[in-house]
Amino acid sequence: MSAIELSSELEFVQKEVIKHPVTKKERWGFYAYGFGSEPFAAVVVAVCAPVMLESLTALIKPCGTSNDSNCSFYLGSARLNPTSFALYVTAISVAIQAIVFVGLSALADHGNNRKRLLLSTGLICSLSCIAYLGVVNRNLYGLAAIITIIANVSFGASYVFYYSYLPTLTQNDEEVLEAKASGKDPHEVTIIAERVGNKVSSLGFAWGYGGAIIALAITAGIALAMGDSEYSLQIAAAVNGAWYLVGIIVTWKWLAPRPGPPLPQGESYLTYSWKCMFQTLCEAPKLSQAFLLLLSWFLLSDGLATVVYVAVLFAKTEMGFTTFEIFLIAFIAPLAAGIGCVFWLQVQRFFKLRTKTMVIMLNTLYMIIPIIGVVSIYAKVLHTKVELYIFGAYHGFLLGALQSFYRTLFAEMLPPGKESQFFGLYQITDKGSSWMGPLIIGAITQKTGQIRYGFYFLLCSFAIPFILNLLIDVHKGVHQAKNYSKKYGGISSDSDAKNEISPFDANLKEN
């Protein structure tokens, strides 16, 4: 990028920051998207899609019992277990997600694309959920699989653009801008920006889980009214699609586009994202701390996603839960998550703990889940429905806060002006690993005959990230991001440039 192009970008962004500080309505527009979209993850991804795919294929050749491991059907010449089929569909959607993420991630940083792409991908997902109504009999399991793949890919793509709003809303917050303009010490500016970022992130998750709780209550009512009817899952998914659509409309009305600088001269939207991602990967040594966090999140996010799959399948196959009871567990988890987001944010403020400290603490508490799971193999623990309900509540109480603090910690080490590009990579590490846990635990279950042995894998999924998080130097990561931005473009983050300083630019003194 030439000096003229870089100067033009900096001038554009600086003017936008000064003219358009974040309004309350804009912030509520951001929260509205999470309020509308989170039910898809909590209801459709966690319950409806996997149970629907497993149930439809199991009905092709009915299983003898609810936990018959020999139940199978033929897809062409291949003989598949219904549970494995659901996992394979997940793996395919994740592979496609990785390609889509790379192709779209950098686009939101340039031109007026961020909001447009956020709404477009969200709309595809919501309409896909409604399309589940077309799966009217067991022989249409292939259609259900295609809908699931489209919905998962579009949902994941939308969150690339949703996450990319966090640094922008933080940098342009009125309190942060006033702190910069008043000439406060860079360290004070950083503390203020970190607090604002944590607040926006935590409230975003809290509103998201609030929406999930309401949607889960509605879908649980549907399941209770229809009993164990196989079509109840399709109706529940469609209701959540309609809910998602309402959130998209509110976001369209209230969330500002926040346009970025124009695409560099001579670049194409078809290739620019790929070139940027290739450059990002090649420069990993210069952003070693951010990439160390990405590696940690790659492993941990797989564990977090796998816990949900294990809980649903465990409840259905070993505990004999009805569809309504599975929805009840799914209801408890986001309820606890919404409370947890607010609770852990207050803990951070009261004890004045840094974001990295919160990540390590919550990671440690989360390891209790697989430890209890391993103990349950040898002792009479986790053998009643009440215990599984408690398990779901504890999982949710930690999940929302852990996701929020991870996201904020990553935002602190982003090169200014490259938010969408790097959050695209963040989303790839999040979703790109989510096929590993289900497939590995599926293989363990097939080998041992007990899904409980999968808790050994989950323990590793939480223990390794814990070690990696201890090694992260946030202070070093912030300065690596600043130096990267100077070299490759974006918003300058020199501490002496009052209008262009990154909110996470100063010495964090985390370690």
TrEMBL record:
Belongs to the ATG22 family. InterPro entries: Atg22, Atg22-like, ATG22/LtaA_families, MFS_dom, MFS_trans_sf. It is a multi-pass membrane protein. The keyword Transport applies. One of its GO terms (cellular component) is endomembrane system. This is Autophagy-related protein. Residues 289-511 form the Major facilitator superfamily (MFS) profile domain. GO terms for biological process: amino acid transmembrane export from vacuole; autophagy. The keyword Metal-binding does not apply. One of its GO terms (molecular function) is transmembrane transporter activity. Keywords: Amino-acid transport, Autophagy, Membrane, Transmembrane, Transmembrane helix, Transport, Vacuole. It is found in: Endomembrane system; Vacuole membrane. Residues 490-511 are annotated as: Disordered. It comes from the Eukaryota. Vacuolar effluxer which mediate the efflux of amino acids resulting from autophagic degradation. The release of autophagic amino acids allows the maintenance of protein synthesis and viability during nitrogen starvation. The chain crosses the membrane at residues 30-52, 85-105, 117-135, 141-162, 205-225, 231-255, 291-314, 326-347, 359-382, 388-406, 453-472.
